[in-house]
Amino acid sequence: MNRRTVLLSLALFLLPVIVAATPPAWQIDSKKSAISFSAIQNNSPITGQFTLFTGEINFDPTQLSTSHVNIIVDIGSVTTSYKEISDTLKTPDWFDVKLFPQAIFKADKFTKTGDKTYQAEGNLTIRDKTVPVTLQFTLEEYQNTKALIKGTTTLKRTAFGVGRGEWAKTDAVKDNVQVNFVLAVVRE
Fold first, then answer.
1. In angstroms, rounded to a whole number, what is the distance separating the alpha carbons of residues 147 and 26?
2. What is the full DSSP assignment across 17-44?
3. Is the pTM of this model over 0.90?
4. What is the CATH code for 23-186?
5. At 129, which helix (H) or strand (E)?
6. pLDDT at 17 over 90
7. Which residue pairs, CB below 8 angstroms and at least 24 apart, start in 82-91?
8. 8 A C-beta contact, residue 160 and residue 129
9. Are 162 and 132 in contact (CB under 8 A)?
10. Is 28 exposed, middle or buried (0-12, 13-18, 19+ CB in 10 A)?
C-alpha cells in the first residue's frame, strides 16, 4: 500500500472516534430558562434578571474534556423590581449597555464534583473586563433530547468595573453579586 492509501485508511478508521468525541449540541429553551442575580444595597437585597440570552452548549457528562459552552447575555435586557434601578444599571456608571451591550461566558473545563454536580471553569467578560469564573451546577435532568441545569456563582462587581464614580465604593452597594441560572436545553 502506498502512503496515501494508508493515510486514507487511518482517517476512515479514526472518523467514528472523532465524531463520537464531540459532545451533543444543545439549544436553550428561553421560555424555561433564566439568569437572575441578587446584590445588597444599603443592607437590603436587590434582585433582578437578564431576560435575553443565547448560547452554544456542547456538553455531555461522559465527555467532559471535550465539552464547552459560550453564553451571550444581552445586558440591556436587565430588569429588577424597580424600573429606576433597572434604568440605572444600564448607565455608564454601571453596565454601560450602549458601549458594552453583551456579557459573554466561555468555558471548556468541566469537573464532576458529585453524583449530579459539576463545576465549569471559564472566563466572563462584562464591560471590557475578562475575569476567570467558576460556576457550580447540577444536572437536575439529563436525557437524550432534553436536560435541565441549575447553577450558581458569586461575582465581585468591582472586578468588572461595574459601579463607577460614586458607586465604586462597596459600602452602599456590596461587592458580591450572586448569580443563579436555570437552563432548560433541548436537542433533536
1. 9
2. HHHHTSPPEEEE-TTS-EEEEEEEETTE
3. no
4. 2.40.128.110
5. strand 129-142
6. no
7. 85/46, 85/48, 86/48, 89/48
8. yes
9. no
10. middle
Q: What is the pLDDT of residues 105-140, one digit of tens each?
A: 999 999 999 999 999 999 999 999 999 999 999 999
What pLDDT band is residue 13 in, cutting at 50, 70 and 90? low
Count of CB atoms within 10 A of residue 34's CB? 16
Where residue 43 falls (left for φ over 0; alpha for ψ -120 to 50; beta otherwise) is left
Positive/negative CA dihedral, 135, 164, 86, 56: negative
d(CA 100, CA 91): 10
How confident is the model over 30-59, as pLDDT tens digits? 999 999 999 999 999 999 999 999 999 999
CB 131 within 8 A of CB 124: yes
Q: How much is the pLDDT for 188?
A: 74
Cβ atoms of 188 and 116 within 8 Å: the answer is: no
Mean pLDDT score across all residues of the chain: 92
In this structure, the dihedral spanned by the alpha carbons of residues 79, 85, 91 and 97, taken in order and rounded to 10 degrees, is: -10
- The one-letter amino acid code at 103 reads A
> Where in the chain are the domains?
23-186
Residue 18 has which C-alpha cell?
472523532
